Amino acid sequence: MSRYSASGHDLTPLAPVERERLAARLTPEQRHVLLARGTERPFCGGLLHEHGAGVFACALCGLPLFAATAKFESGTGWPSFSAPFDPAHLRELRDTSHGMIRTEIRCARCDSHIGHVFDDGPPPGGLRYCMNSAALEFRPG
After folding, report:
1. Residue 89: is it exposed, middle or buried by C-beta count within 10 angstroms (0-12/13-18/19+)?
2. Of 61, 107, 110, 130, which is the active-site residue?
């Protein structure tokens, strides 16, 4: 059974066979971040300085996660966004790894790790979605 977000995107979870098929095309770094909840090194991600018009989508399943208009320079070394493309496209989980309490962000369709969200972002929402470049693909538009 499929379900759609308010923005019209299919959020039906991927079948295990489809997830593995898509994962086979990932780089080792993308596999580490998306599938093993890894984090890329700060200031090294390929999308950190991407400022074109378009959408940042999940690198595994292609679901749009952030509009380029929500991207801002946080100075943290990772691409940062003030709001999601569609809140239904993200799943939040409590993360207590590394001696911290954080909120992990996962793709709602394929359940891949994308990054974390913090409450030190710009107004009006005050959120900073701190994402891994390896977890995203930029689609100009």
Report:
1. buried
2. 130
Helices assigned H by DSSP within 13-135 = 16-23, 28-36
Tell me the per-residue pLDDT of 69-126, one tens digit each, with 9 for 90 and over: 999 999 999 999 999 999 999 999 999 888 888 999 999 999 999 999 999 999 999 9
Q: How many CB atoms lie within 10 A of CB 24?
A: 8
| 130 closest CA partner among 141, 112, 109, 115 | 115
pLDDT in tens, 44-66: 999 999 999 999 999 999 999 99
Identify whether 130 is a catalytic site residue. Answer: yes
Are the beta carbons of 102 and 95 closer than 8 angstroms? yes
Helices 28-36 and 16-23 pack at an angle, to 10 degrees, of: 150
Side-chain half-sphere of 116: how many Cα atoms within 13 Å?
17
